[in-house]
Fold this sequence. Notes:
alpha/beta; Rossmann fold; 7-stranded parallel beta sheet; two-stranded parallel ribbon; 9 strands; globular
Amino acid sequence: MTIAITGATGQLGRLIVERLKTRVEPARLRALVRTPAKAADLGIQALEADYDRPSTLAAALAGVDTLMLVSSSEVGRRTAQHRHVIEAARAAGVRRIVYTSLLRADTSALSLAGEHRDTERMLKDAGLGWTILRNGWYTENYMGSVAGALAGGELVGTVGQGRIASASRADYAAAAAVVLTEAGHEKQTYELAGDTAYTLEQLAAELSRQTGRTIPYRHVSEADYAAFLAAHGLPPELARAIASWDAEASRGALYDDGRRLSRLIGRPTTPLADSVTAALNA
């Protein structure tokens, strides 16, 4: 049985590959990437597979039993790109696709949700086996603000008192490895999030505790946060998108208390304090 992983050189894809290598023989794994040379350090077979070039997908998927479809990073183009992969997988005789979706994609108000809903629908209509991993936020998304908070002396956001049940990429990768290699997960949709939710005030407090400095959280409006991000170098469109996601987080979009993720991986999810320590030592 061959397991193929799309986006295997990405931040999540690499972690999934490493987790899989502890569970199955590397010879059973295949990295599907745009540039195979960049996958040389993965220690598994790597084949060219470009979401935008369907002609590359047929050969890459030949002989694959299970496909790990890591969602494309190109927001706005995901539906078409994922359609190409799903159609190629069906033509190649792939038995099951595991897909990284979004927490509560069917009801989420996040602007990211629409393309995930489209992909979930395509998966269910394709006639293949499927497992949907509705991943919550990556804790690393907020760890990217640590350096700026230290430099500016405050953590700025528009989440208010919204609680964020994030987990590390390593946690989500561990879950993917489980469902890719164990039975009983076909036609299952899992809402995955961290065990313990936190507010940005609590993140700022943990940052203060570990640095010995006073780093407060400053709440601003969605428009002001978008302007703040743009002023610090983000493209305006991306800044507005991130601000909108934080605004939805203030209304509960990133909160979940089901603890399905920790049950799936058989251990607690990575504590916020550990992620802060890692960010400070990066």
